[in-house]
Amino acid sequence: MTIAFTTREGGVSEGAYASLNLADHVGDNPEHVAENRRILLEALDIPNCAECLVNPVQVHGDTVAIFTDEAGKEHMEDAVELLDAQGVLLFTEHRTSPELECDAIACTVEDVPVMLCYADCVPIILVAPNGCFAVVHSGWKGTLKSIAEKAVHALSVASGCPSSSFNAYIGPHIGSCCYEVSDEILDAFVAEFGEACDAFANHLDLEYAVVSALRSAGVESDRIVSSGICTACSTDCFYSYRAEGGTTGRIAAIACRKGVS
Fold first, then answer.
1. What is the CATH number of the domain that holds 125?
2. Are the C-beta atoms of residues 252 and 124 closer than 8 Å to each other?
3. Angle at the Cα of 37 (from 31 to 40), degrees rounded to 5?
4. Which end of the chain, N or C, is less packed with Cβ atoms under 10 Å?
5. Do 48 and 133 contact (CB within 8 A), yes or no?
6. Is position 185 within any domain?
7. Strand, coil or helix: what is 37?
8. Could you tell me which of 67, 128, 104 has the C-alpha nearest to residue 210?
9. What tens digit of pLDDT does each residue of 216-242 get?
């Protein structure tokens, strides 16, 4: 099993995107993005998985996709109706098309890396004890729509493991120290997750809300770990959409269940 949260260092992109920008939708040179992705997969010792890389269009929604094989689909047969009702997409082909829009992917198959890009939003990687995993992009909109909780439920169905057995890893993201929001947004979070979301002077503790969602879905508190790094405070190492005025690259959360070679 391989999981990683990237920094902005070690790539070939230039200017505002320097240097390991992994997103292909922000205005960077496409050749640079392709080379940065190659560098990342090589560093993770999964270069042979490049053709299967899953990187959907992220829309700050609550759609979850499951990538599995025929055996996995059969295993989930009894739950397909439930998954459909929750808006979960089910795939047995491991290549995404430009039309796939989602902000969380659960994966049960080997040698299929899943990568979601971000620059301040909260990235989450969930890992089941049998190696199945999910990668989640949880900005403020997705958090209010319970994207993390939905991803936990989808992974539980896909993996056949209880959510209490999952490990949850939270990567670098904008911290409450730098995340000032409107009264309307803050009030919505307080109503949904409690007063603890209100850090101070309209600053939102987005991680608190994400952790609350994970716990509500059954993930044990002692299985949730966070990097504790604020992207907006650390633009030397990470991209920050807010701190860099909206023109910047994207770091990534990536996971892959490696097969036996």
1. 3.60.140.10
2. no
3. 145
4. C
5. no
6. no
7. helix
8. 104
9. 999 999 999 999 999 999 999 999 999
